[in-house]
Amino acid sequence: MFVLPLREGAQLRPLEPAHAQEFLEHIDRARPNVDPWIPWATFSTDLESATATLQRYADRQARDTGRLYGIWLDGTLVGGVMFTRFETASGNCEIGCWSEEAGSGQGLVNQACRALIDWAFTERGMSRVEWLVSSVNTRSIAAARRLGLTREGVLRKRTPYRGERLDTEVWSILSEEWQRASTPTTTTDKAELDRLMAAFLGAFDNTVGAHPHVDAIREVFIPQGMIISNTASGPVIHTLDAFIEPREKMLTDGTLTQFSEWEVSERTEIFESIAHRTSAYRKSGVHKGEPFEGAGRKMTQFVRTPAGWKMASLTWEDE
Question: What is the pTM of this model?
Fold first, then answer.
């Protein structure tokens, strides 16, 4: 069976009809996050319907028109990714994802999506990967941004849902836009650095259906890590504790809501056991009832430790 390690304790592997009971239990846990956005989640309410959902994707895989993969964390199914449409003749495909709360904010979905996109372009020669998302599904929109996809437009009132019709945004990325490292070793390292950055940014996400996991920052940094804000009056240097506590409070007490942050571009250089990443980012949210958007730059240093790659320091400057 195909198994792709995502990190220690986490795997990506095919989600098949034999997993129906486990899949149903997972969807019941994930339903608050996925029910409004993924039709088969709405209809997978018992063992028979859950089995039917998985069988439909098994049939699509046999015809090479779709695929479904689960993300297991410490032996528990916590999310997944899928090709809802895979058209080899036209070179176009559509990718989607979902997660229950236990699988969120750790970069697992981002890493799994990257694996599927990379496979579609490099192994199957696809030309275009699409991401269709409801205009009110801010969590999925943030995921598309973190993957580097481009928003192309809105299909107005395209999708019926429980008596309403919802707008659908179209995001995509082309094969020539997809950046890959040149060597297998660098590819593995780069994927891990991507995962760390996705986990860092995802830790603050409190858009609809998401719960911030600011304390997860400790897992991506070395214990002595520093986070530095370069302000007009000079740099402000934070320990991890000093950085986490006030932000966790703002993100959970209603001061800062609907917040997400994503990279719009990045350049990563790896030198054996140290690495450096420069990023441009954007962010949006609602602060004390006032919507806002922002942008800026980050510089992040990484070190390879016995436990794997970790962030050592991160400096940011808002525009």
Answer: 0.63
